[in-house]
UniProtKB/TrEMBL annotation:
Organism listed in the record: Paenibacillus monticola
Protein name: Alpha-glycosidase
InterPro entries hit by this protein: GH, GH13_cat_dom, Glyco_hydro_13_lg-like_dom, Glyco_hydro_b, Ig-like_fold, Malt_amylase-like_C, O16G_dom_2
Example GO molecular function: hydrolase activity, hydrolyzing O-glycosyl compounds
Stated family: Belongs to the glycosyl hydrolase 13 family.
One Pfam family in the UniProt entry: Malt_amylase_C
Domain Glycosyl hydrolase family 13 catalytic: 135-492
Coiled-coil residue windows: none
Keywords: Glycosidase, Hydrolase
SMART domains in alphabetical order: Aamy
GO biological process terms held by the UniProt record: carbohydrate metabolic process
Amino acid sequence: MLLEALYHVPRDKWAYAYDTETIHLRVRTKRNDVDCVVALTGDKYDWDPTYYEIMMEKAASDDMFDYWEAAVRPKYKRLCYTFRISAGSENIYLLDNGVHQECPQPPNHYYEFPYIHSIDLFTVPDWAKDAVFYQIMTERFAKGDPTIDPEGTEEWGGIPKLDNFFGGDLLGVLNHLDDLQELGINAIYFTPLFLSPSNHKYDIVDYKKVDPHFGSNQLLKQLVAECHKKGIRVMLDAVFNHCSDKFPPFQDVLEKGEYSVYKDWFHMNSFPAEIIDGIPTYDTFGFFGNMPKFNTANPEVKSYLLEVAEYWIKEIKVDGWRLDVANEVDHHFWRDFRKVVKNANPEAYIVGEVWSDSLTWLLGDQFDSVMNYPFSGTVLEFFNGGMNGVTFGHRIGALLMRYPQQTNEVVFNLLGSHDTPRLLTCVGEDKRRLKLAVVFLFTFMGTPCIYYGDEIGLSGNQDPDCRKCMEWEEEKQDRELYNFYRGMIALRKKNKALREGRFRILQAHESNSCIVYERADTVSHFTIWMNNGSEPRTLSHPMETDDWLDAMTGHPVVPQDGMMNISLDPYGYQILCRSLE
């Protein structure tokens, strides 16, 4: 065994409380290097009566490592443990002080999980596990009240530019709630709605006022209430990293310089506040002078922004916040943000915009979830032919091992957004590839999100092209694609196994891009078969029972001599299911 590859620490994603009675343990070994890993567990104050050995499951693999996992239910909410790792006739023990050839007398040098404290438990909103989100840019979704259009509003459906307007508003969204309900979504993520000079609204002037070109605070309150009547949750976008240069406190800094009472609200490097050779004399989002960066460590700034976060939760009854540029805001602010938001609504869903590994924010004291761009990047690369099945399986396994299970169950999975090219464009306008990616999205762990218009075939390259107006004329929509999305949403919502069940790759190939994987809980078992290639293929896998059905049609699919053989067209898929009750 390669001992240098062994890894475990008694914290973070490696040892954590999943609920008030269960501790999850993970350990890492070199890939294909060991036969089994057994967790030796007990209570350090009462070892012999509580001693229990648990065979760990190989939960995932990546290019270099295997990851083993076990759920332990200690008798007294505390745990003392070590790992016995076996390869052939060789056994070693992984303990808190290193690797041992012999197992010492417990609890000497064993790992410890001292106690499951309910107050320390990382809990996420249960409703987020069942949510199917739909991202809306209000300015581009639907026009409801042309009397509040911005000056110079262009005809609906024109070419999007960085600075043009088409007049979408909140009444337009309200008028189309039935359409969203028919699609099957049960949660909306709105990009910013507050007063701002831009079409995207990420440069905010007034954080407590809905932009008049969208409507009013009262209209948003009405919209949220109507959404709730239809079983739809609402998440708003919080831009707390920066504001608009038209934000009144920053205007005061521009006017009074170092004598402004608001100078410490921002990161001022010199005065006056100006732009020299393209670089502002104050910190900004990127180098955009019109988006000065807040000093969120300043008590007055923190108080102001936390009051804003609480206001929209309490007064408008929104169900959560998506946090823009979350990784550029200090952790102290986010810890206090979580306390304020969860106090206002314990079931509020907090999603940070972080584009890379985000474990630092996902330990129970800051966010519930993050926008899972590493997921979308991996999925799009695979279904565009950029890797074989084995590599894809390894990448997905590595993603699952980034976070604790409760985060994996609600991580915000997306295939496109206002910041990326459209999904259809990403897959070269090939609907077969798009469907494979969407099938994976809806049969994988996490909370899926659809970017408005993807379901009816909108295309578009990078911003601003990805921010086209929604197409509402059915004859101009791809209704076959719409019905596909509707079917996948319904399948996920109907089956808890597709939302919370275990995920495991059953088959992956180095020579091609075919994969077979499963989702299962105690009620149902799904297998998903995919041919991500340009030639027809027949995939085979052992199946012991003959009670499988096609999940989309309900037709029986019977194995032969214990082997399931599934013939797939190029870029084809099939979803099988069976009841375990």
